[in-house]
Design a protein that fits this description.
This is ABC transporter ATP-binding protein. InterPro entries: AAA+_ATPase, ABC_transporter-like_ATP-bd, ABC_transporter-like_CS, P-loop_NTPase. Keywords: ATP-binding, Nucleotide-binding. GO terms for molecular function: ATP binding. This protein is an alpha/beta fold. It is built from nine helices and twelve strands. Strands 6-7-8-3-9-10 form a six-stranded mixed beta sheet, with helices on both faces. The protein binds adenosine-5'-triphosphate. Adenosine-5'-triphosphate (ATP) binds next to strand 2 and helix 1.
Length: about 250
């Protein structure tokens, strides 16, 4: 599924949080949104998972303006892992994961055998099978994050939108999740703070600063010391990963 942001602007209470953001993610492409705190990454993602409506411009999936689709229709193809607070109802992990099937169900909330297998597979993949009967509120931050990833997977989306998905995850789960995103074959738009992980995961990076797109391209072209200094205010040493060749930034404290 191809995602296009076409001159998307978001204005709230007179403040322009996103200014004419245009961005494409081709079918199966992994695009990383990076930028300093408050640069507008979450705001841009909210327009894609429809928690916000752009003040002007449009978000298109395979050429169709999202706002012309029902929420249920767009939820069948777009799954999101967000930073927005989750409802504090103490569902079990298995129930939360099964909720991912909701957009596909019509009046009959009983899971088919195939859907049950889908849930089991997503829980295996995210390493939460052993937590199935636990209440979601009793989990650690990282465990909960992995459950929400499982829920997004059972949605069987064509486009995955993730806001800081590595938050709370230990290093093994960070690496596993990002390797999954890179290899899953879905179109992915992901906001990441860690530029080294972003460089290793994404086909292309889009750099936001004060709500404006300042650079986009393959990580090796984008992550120059000058760009990082100009946008983030620190000057890194850029080296190549000895095995993969992707740029990695070293900081001197
Ligand atoms: N509802 C709102 N009303 C007013 N300002 C808002 C609102 N939502 C976000 N902002 C502001 O818009 C700017 C962009 O916020 P956003 O959360 O998109 O940034 P971000 O790049 O995701 O930041 P971070 O890296 O800190 O998560 C920030 O200055 C934020 O305070």
């Amino acid at each position: 599924m191809e995602l296009t942001l076409d001159a998307v602007s978001v204005e709230i209470s007179g403040a322009r949080l996103i200014d004419e953001l245009s961005l494409k993610a081709g079918d199966g492409e992994v695009v990383g949104l990076v930028g300093p705190n408050g640069s507008g990454k979450s705001t841009a993602l909210r327009c894609v998972y429809r928690a916000l409506r752009p003040s002007s411009g449009a978000v298109l999936v395979d050429g169709t303006d999202l706002t012309t689709l029902s929420i249920r229709d767009s939820a069948r193809s777009v799954a999101a892992l967000t930073q927005d607070g989750t409802a504090d109802l103490d569902f079990t992990v298995a129930e939360v994961v099964a909720l991912g099937r909701f957009p596909h169900q019509r009046g009959n909330p009983v899971l088919s055998d195939r859907e049950r297998e889908l849930c089991a597979e997503a829980m295996r993949r995210t390493g939460v099978t052993h937590l199935a009967r636990r209440g979601i509120l009793s989990l650690s931050g990282g465990e909960r994050q992995r459950v929400l990833i499982a829920r997004a997977l059972v949605q069987e989306p064509e486009l995955l939108v993730l806001d800081e998905p590595t938050n709370h995850l230990d290093v093994r789960h960070q690496v596993e999740l990002l390797a999954f995103l890179r290899d899953c074959g879905l179109t992915v738009l992901v906001a990441l703070h860690d530029l080294n992980l972003a460089a290793s995961t994404c086909d292309r990076l889009a750099v936001l600063q004060n709500g404006t797109l300042v650079e986009t391209g393959p990580p090796a072209d984008v992550l120059t010391p000058e760009l990082v200094r100009r946008v983030f205010g620190v000057t890194p040493t850029v080296v190549r990963h000895p095995r993969t060749g992707v740029p990695q930034l070293l900081y001197t404290l």
